[in-house]
Amino acid sequence: MVILKRSFYTRPTLKVAQGLLGCFLVRRIGKKKLIGKIVETEAYIGPGDKASHAYQGKITKRNRAEFLIGGHVYIYLVYGMYYQLNITTSKEGRPECILIRALEPINDSKAKIKKSASGPGKLCQYLKLDKSFYGEDLCKSKRLWLENKKERISLSQIVHSKRIGIDYAQEYKDKLWRFYLRDNEFVSRK
Asked: Residue 40 CA to chain centroid, in angstroms?
């Protein structure tokens, strides 16, 4: 398989969010590789998106990585205990990203990962991702990267729905910017 190039990530965010479905997230830990097929994503398109950490263009210590050119990791802690993996999209200075919500295992016990990666926080625990990945370049990293998909995903296989946990985002809570593979058992639940 081929590592995704920068040009994949710098396309419009909603296209990237759907294009990531079926791609492989690879995490190297020592000599071992954990590989999961991405089956669920959510797009965040700041600064207009009221659910984005970069709403109104604000730059903070927490969200600075969100402003990097597409293909970098924006990871942060929620509830003081769960990391969430986001991938930047678009051009440098445009704070847009995609939350990786769920993976389907490729080289590990399906039962194990279903329990371990059924949502964005558990996914980071399973892959042992933490703040040391903040700003990591997925096009150059030797410990975390994305590879192209083996099979073509048709538009009919992709479900569009509301994002999860953003009721505060007023009219943006109703945007259908969550994407997942239809009938995939590894998609997270509300």
From this structure: 8
For tokens 């600075």, the residue is 64
Q: Are 13 and 45 in contact (CB under 8 A)?
A: yes
Looking at the chain, list the stretches that DSSP marks H as alpha helix, in order from N- to C-terminal side: 6-9, 13-19, 110-116, 120-127
For residue 120, whether the previous peptide bond is cis, meaning omega lies within 30 degrees of 0, is no
Residues 142 and 140: their CA atoms lie apart, in Å, by: 7
Q: What is the mean pLDDT of each run of 10 residues along the chain (190 residues)?
A: 94 97 96 93 95 94 96 93 95 97 79 61 91 98 94 94 94 97 87
Q: Take residue 25 and report the two structure tokens written for it.
A: 């997230």
What's the pLDDT score for residue 110? 54
Pairing relationship of beta strands 82-88 and 158-161 according to DSSP bridges: unpaired
Beta bridge partners of 45: 96
Provide the CATH number for the domain formed by 6-181 in this structure.
3.10.300.10
**Alpha-carbon torsion (154, 160, 163, 164), positive or negative:** negative
Closest CA to 9 of 62, 66, 75, 76: 66
What's the rounded Cα separation, in Å, for the pair 178 and 114?
A: 19
